[in-house]
Design a protein that fits this description.
Blueprint lengths: L1 H13 L1 H26 L3 H26 L5 H25 L4 H22 L8 H6 L7 H20 L1 H9 L1 H6 L4 H40 L5 H26 L3 H19 L5 H10 L3 H14 L4 E2 H7 L4 H13 L3 E3 L3 E4 L1 H23 L4 H11 L5 H10 L24 E3 L8 E7 L13 E4 L9 E4 L5 E4 L1 H6 E5 L2
Antiparallel strand pairs: 1-3, 2-3, 4-9, 5-6, 5-9, 6-7, 7-8
Helix pairs in contact: 1-2, 2-7, 2-10, 2-11, 3-4, 3-5, 3-10, 4-5, 4-10, 7-10, 10-11, 10-12, 11-12, 14-17, 17-18
């Protein structure tokens, strides 16, 4: 045991910079992953980039103040405070510009962060004889140059940020997913936004030492985005993002040592490759899962074509072979479509074939109604009769009942299609006890008058009066109503639409 301890002490004495680099990188990558979850969920990735660039002005000003006032150079706490103030000033200016001008928030972020970043570069140039900051390493990172003071600063930042997340987890969770509800419940949304911005600024400042100002956004966003691919709950996402941040750092650092390249770039590249790998194999949102889902999916048109084909067939049980011959799809796809329809309780499935349920029969009638209405509409547009069925077969799959109802109304609620086949009624609304317009009813329907609209007010009818729908008259289309005393009332389209009745059995 003593030999192992002596060997570890000897390694630390000769590789102290490596130990500090590993510890600092682990702390920063974990806390960046945790904070990145809230940044990703709130869609604030661009704001994180703005904070990373704007902190240059704060670092330079903090350095100058400590140099002029106390004669201290590269004072880490002062530069941290300066960067934090610069970040908060950036957020405040972005909010001011977006609220008080026509410029949108994304443009305001671009204006402010580039302006403040340029201001930092300008001040650094003007006072270059006072400032001894390695701007190259500030931009690209200098992991192996982490000093003990920097390490303590990173540990303090990690402790503060993680404590803020733990203590305010519930409120941060609510404001991230539904800020309107959070405000209605009395949660201080604006205050939490400033807390989140402050924590993000602290994390960005600490991350600059590892990967530099350019790549710190990758360390902040990529692990969180990777965790988002596999997690459904925020609590699990936080743990996963911290783990992905740590593994990307360790793998990237190992690669940088092996290839003798800049650690910052290798760390961010490792995180990106990790994201790509998880994206490829994620169980629900990954590329492979989506590809398999598309292969297993059954197009809506095929399912609806099966229902229509079964309804036209008329037999109680329609054999698989008969459906395969009539429909343009393979036997495997047909089997999958039948299973999907059975899962939706539209059909009953057996080895021999399929049978429509009441729900499936209603859906088949709805499709037939839509098909024949589209045929009627296309015929009035001048479409050749030979093309009516093919084109209507494509349009009938438009699953918007309002569009079909609008079409029915514009056509004057026709009774038959151009081929002379009857157009089915709307089976969902034309049921006993329903309140419907007379224009939707057919000959033989019995009902009770419930409401007379403005156009129907002049008719010789009264509320509560029983009626029977008679035949329609063409040219112009006219609805007729038979009354109990033997008289007949004629209605035009507007009057038939304005007369609401309660349908009887």
């Amino acid at each position: 045991m003593s030999d192992w301890w002596e060997a570890a002490a000897a390694w630390h004495a000769t590789h102290a910079h490596v130990a500090r680099a590993l510890l600092a990188g682990s702390l920063v990558s974990i806390v960046c992953g945790v904070m990145g979850c809230f940044i990703v969920l709130r869609r604030m990735a661009f704001l994180g980039d703005a904070l990373a660039h704007a902190m240059l002005a704060g670092v330079v000003i903090g350095y100058l103040l400590m140099k002029w006032l106390f004669g201290l150079e590269a004072h880490a706490p002062a530069m941290l405070v300066g960067a934090l103030i610069a970040g908060l000033a950036t957020v405040g200016l972005v909010g001011l510009v977006s609220r008080q001008s026509r410029v949108k928030e994304d443009a305001a972020i671009g204006i402010m962060y580039t302006g403040i970043f340029a201001l930092g570069g300008l001040i650094a140039s003007l006072f270059s004889h006072y400032i001894h900051i390695d701007l190259l390493h500030f931009v690209t990172g200098n992991l192996l140059a982490v000093e003990l003071a920097d390490l303590w600063m990173m540990a303090a930042v990690a402790a503060v940020v993680l404590a803020a997340v733990i203590l305010g987890f519930r409120s941060l969770q609510l404001t991230s997913f539904d800020p309107v509800m959070a405000a209605s419940l009395g949660v201080p949304v604006a205050a939490l936004d400033y807390v989140l911005t402050t924590c993000t600024s602290l994390v960005v400042v600490s991350g600059v030492h590892i990967v530099g100002v350019i790549l710190v956004v990758g360390l902040l966003i990529t692990p969180a985005a990777t965790a988002l691919l596999i997690c459904r709950r925020l609590s699990a996402m936080l743990w996963a993002a911290a783990l992905f941040g740590l593994t990307s750092f360790l793998f990237g650092y190992a690669v940088s040592e092996w290839l003798n390249v800049a650690p910052g770039s290798a760390i961010v590249v490792a995180g990106t490759l990790q994201f790509a790998a998880v994206w490829a194999v994620a169980p629900e949102h990954g590329l492979a899962a989506r590809w398999l889902a598309r292969r297993r999916a059954v197009p809506q048109t095929i399912r609806e074509d099966i229902l229509g084909c079964m309804h036209r067939d008329g037999r109680e049980w329609v054999p698989w072979k008969s459906l395969t011959e009539r429909l343009e799809c393979g036997a495997t796809m047909l089997r999958r479509a039948g299973e999907a329809l059975a899962a939706g309780h539209w059909v009953e499935c057996s080895r021999e074939g399929l049978r429509l349920t009441d729900l499936g029969r209603d859906e088949a009638l709805r499709l037939r109604r839509a098909h024949r209405l589209w045929e009627t509409y296309l015929e009035r547009l001048g479409t050749p009769v030979s093309d009516l069925h093919r084109r209507a077969d494509q349009l009938e799959h438009v699953n918007d009942e309002r569009a079909v109802d609008y079409l029915d109304d514009k056509l004057g609620h026709p009774l038959v299609d151009p081929h002379g086949a009857e157009i089915p009624v709307d089976g969902k609304r034309i049921v006993a006890g329903a309140l419907v317009r007379v224009s939707l009813l057919r000959e033989g329907h019995q009902a009770i008058v419930r409401q007379l609209g403005p156009a129907a007010a002049t008719l010789a009818l009264s509320v509560g009066q029983p009626i029977r729908v008679g035949p329609r008259r063409p040219d112009p289309i006219t609805w007729t109503i038979d009354l109990a005393d033997g008289s007949v009332v004629a209605l035009d389209h507007r009057q038939a639409d304005d007369l609401l009745v309660e349908l009887r059995d």
